């Protein structure tokens, strides 16, 4: 081989090698510097990643935002809730992450708070020095880190606790909404006799089991569940053991659908309810969006029903586990907040968008009108129009919104290990692998191991 | 390309490497050039693979959630915790059951299908397509179908009722005892087509004269299968053994999508447990330690199988 050719080959190889090393190091790198001064606050292209709002809702938010800020283009990437953390973690660790990203309160916030910029000064500039008094207090406290920095702006609040019923099915069989477990079993017996499923839950997705367990516990001893999550009560408390017993009875006494532990809340339980196969499902405030005829029709179609016809769905308090006991109350936390990536090169435009959606009246109004979340900004109420059956749904929704304003109990826990332990307790009891008392004892030990101080 | 006499001579009688001069020079040049050409691939391999493995090894010594700037060194504590973790040992047991179950059933079915379709059967192409189609269906697409089909009011129970076996009805994915066998059944359904194709191709290489000779010597179907076909396709069987072993260790999609590792960890595998620990629970250090354990297991099994394979080859 001629010398010149060999030298050229060597240089090519060295260049290729250097490029490969750079590529490899880029692939495995974990940090990137923040981008410049953050750019213009009124123009630029903002990449937004989230698991909410839904695909059909996000364009309406962006369109309304663009009426006020036409020079900021927002691209929304919808991810599944189950895959969100797997996608966002490496994206944020690299320099190719989104400019704005959804973050839930609790454990998720604890994991991703360090990637966000402090939005407190921006909120103060937008709303004034008394900005904290104009928004939901839990929306602020849930997204404030240990350094008193506001790392995300709460867009809306999410509440769980109610059971949603298919009013049309109830009317067809002359049924009234159950108020306790005894009535619930009677309702289920009638529905089963008529070939309709009673209550569906995707117990394989344990996060939703936590909602149901908390709802049950609140009908036995209001607030005890939340106290236990904070270490103010023990999980072995007889009332919590009774809650686990009631949970087990839902599987054994024909309330829960057979094989619930093999199904997921999304899509299985959601589809089961929306397709009319089941008359009841445990979902939170976010299900209010399905009281609207157009949203409900689209959702039924997405559940696989051809020629979808919307039906009337209304929320009822979770039936009491004790006959004549307290009906279930709501518990909640911010559904999601918007954080601005500290590495973003368009931080200022991204902050403009996050502020508009979370704190501007126009942005919060459109969030409220979607009926997926309770707005974080005080004084904004949803326009309850386009309902399937206004006479039935309007009072129920107004009541739900009123209740949401009085909530004192948390929904999402900041301790992921505790949430896992509650999930395990629920499934072991449901499967018959442990008695309620045994599961409570295991849960107490797991909570202590997870760092909860009792 | 014509080979020079010198080169031919070097190939026949390679010169021992020397420090300088003589006939060793062309050889050294060749080595230098060769290393140069494999350098990009080597760097890619070392950079992307081994660097990340080493980095994972480092993370496995930390108590870290994967995103926090606070990383606490815990030494080998994560590994000690793993050895006392019942979920880890459960995942190992499930992997062993899965490996044995899928290998035995897939191999048997694949071989039987291949033998049948090498005989005089009409509509062979149709059968081949039917057997192979599950291989190309993505588990993500099929997962909701399986959750529905194996639910309490699903099609599988309906089928059992139809054939008079209604007493066997179960909520197959909802019970700890039946969830793992159901996951195995789903995987076998999805992978038997591949086994079949490999055996079908391997059987096509058997000399027909050998089979004819066996027939003339009075061998029946079973004897021909056991004494002629099985030894002839042994290489395929070994390849399937290795593929199934590797597939068992890195199994993720079907249990994650169909059962989410449940109920009560009854279908938890190393892959799903690593994902749960790192992504869902934020124990990235612990998950990295699990990954290292998985790597050690995979390498050990690969060494074991290749040694066995070499011993068998030498014996033949």
Automatic annotation (TrEMBL), chain A:
InterPro entries the UniProt entry points to: Bact_solute-bd_prot1 (IPR050490), SBP (IPR006059)
The organism's place on the tree of life at top rank: Bacteria
PROSITE patterns linked to this entry: PROKAR_LIPOPROTEIN
Any one annotated GO CC term: cell envelope
Compartments, as annotated in UniProt: Cell envelope
Coiled-coil annotated spans: none
Record flagged with keyword Transcription regulation: no
Alphabetical UniProt keywords: Signal, Transport
One Pfam family of this chain: SBP_bac_1
Secretion signal span: 1-24
PANTHER family associated with the record: ARABINOSE-BINDING PROTEIN-RELATED (PTHR43649), SN-GLYCEROL-3-PHOSPHATE-BINDING PERIPLASMIC PROTEIN UGPB (PTHR43649:SF31)
UniProt similarity note: Belongs to the bacterial solute-binding protein 1 family.
Record's protein name: Carbohydrate ABC transporter substrate-binding protein
Organism: Amnibacterium flavum
